[in-house]
Amino acid sequence: MAGVATSSRQRSRIAPYLMILPALAYLAIFFVVPFYSLFRTSLSEMAGSVYLPTLTFAWNWGNYADAFTLYSDQIVRSLTYAFAATVISLLLSYPLAYVIAFKSGRYKNLLLGLVILPFFVTFLVRTLAWKTIFADNGFVVQVLDTLGLVDGRLLSTPWAVIGGLVYNSMTFMILPLYVSLEKMDPRLLEASRDLYSSGARAFRKVILPLSMPGVLAGSLLVFIPAMGDFINADYLGSTQTTMIGNVIQKQFLVVKDYPAAAALSFLLMAMILVGVLSYTRALGTEELT
């Protein structure tokens, strides 16, 4: 009996490791190997022609310096656009998430369905739809032009790109905020009212702190994809609104300067990692949902 019990305990200890083996194998094949290949490419030197390029590994760290020097404007622009899109998404999404969580009643599921409805349409089609909405002869531009907010044109401007980023990523902000707000204990709000707290003070002292995990998760889900986005800048912007994602795409597929493109990709990953760690440390929250 003792031998059977010992064998059972050993199997129970091994079982969790066996269960994660498929996931580890998947990560090794589709993440670690490509990651290593990209890193090796970023330190290589190009030779040959555009049609028949060849790579020679040479520990060429100068690719990183060149990438940062040549494309610093696009890097700063990407940071600016991604930050602006994140802030605007948060300001627009928080009231909507609050209404869905606390005020929607029997219409909660309907509103949640409307929030995710745009995802039934592909990302590219949604972006092209905004190109039609922002057309020079469209209703939106005419209204904004009448109000003096634009000079007869919205397409090919930074605001068009930021608007596309906000629209395509707002759902990723709304849903984490809704989850954080929805699981909040309503008795806390009742207690704040019993203590004669104003609505603004209750929001500042109770609702906002308790919803910070949702703010953090939503901000990361918006900021990270926006940093590497190139579709919105390609279709809604111009050569003056090029982001780092556009540069990487063109270096890989058009110019075929693979070391430069790989170095830019690693720079982008490093900037995102530093930004995410700094943001999570500043907010001081560990629970994301």
What features would you describe in this structure?
With 289 residues, the protein is mainly alpha-helical. It has 2 domains: 41 residues; 216 residues, Orthogonal Bundle (MetI-like fold), CATH 1.10.3720.10. The protein is built from 13 helices and 2 strands. It has a two-stranded antiparallel sheet. A hairpin with a 4-residue loop joins strand 1 and strand 2. Helix 8 packs antiparallel against helix 9. The longest helix has 41 residues. It starts with a helix and ends in a 6-residue tail after the last helix. This is ABC transporter permease. One of its GO terms (cellular component) is plasma membrane. It is found in: Cell membrane. It is a multi-pass membrane protein.
